[in-house]
């Protein structure tokens, strides 16, 4: 069953997040370039992965500012702003400390967060991430995004309701 989408305030921006699972460990999943936490639950392979994590942890997943159900922004945020968003989500979810799982492009943000706020980061896990990006890799990644169902559905839900984008 899909969890309820909540919103954490980070400055003037609302960051969409969901909490599920009941394990003794707090786990925050920092997404890659694009995400939509509501549409993730339409992907059977991802659902199995998320439910497995929820079997041993209290999991928080969120849409970074400008993506998914989070507020749109006029320009790309810097890492400091995105760390503020991660802190706002953890605070709203009542997580003083958590293991942080950085997926793909979420890895550098997760590593910086762990280094900047070591008391809030119980553990750091990087999945499919990188220390620095090469321009060729970025360009190749962008070409493949147009076929990704998460990208096609980007921005199609707000507060659990379909919008005119569908």
Task: Annotate the secondary structure layout.
Elements: E1 5-10, E2 13-20, E3 25-30, H1 37-40, H2 44-54, E4 57-62, H3 79-92, E5 98-103, H4 106-116, E6 121-127, H5 135-145, H6 149-152, E7 157-158, E8 161-162
Parallel strand pairs: 3-4, 3-5, 5-6
Antiparallel strand pairs: 1-2, 2-4, 7-8
Helix pairs in contact: 3-4
Structure report:
This protein has 166 residues and is α/β, with parallel strands linked by helices. The chain has a single domain, classed as Rossmann fold (3-Layer(aba) Sandwich). Helices cover 33% and strands 26% of the residues. It has six helices and eight strands; from the N terminus they run βββααβαβαβααββ. The chain has helices at 37-40, 44-54, 79-92, 106-116, 135-145, 149-152, and strands at 5-10, 13-20, 25-30, 57-62, 98-103, 121-127, 157-158, 161-162. Helix 3 packs across helix 4 (106-116). It is globular and about 40 Å long.
What descriptors fit this protein?
166 residues, alpha/beta, Rossmann fold, 6-stranded mixed sheet, two-stranded antiparallel sheet, 6 helices, 26% strand
Give a quick summary of the entry.
The chain is of the alpha/beta class. The protein has helices at residues 37-40, 44-54, 79-92, 106-116, 135-145, 149-152; strands at residues 5-10, 13-20, 25-30, 57-62, 98-103, 121-127, 157-158, 161-162.
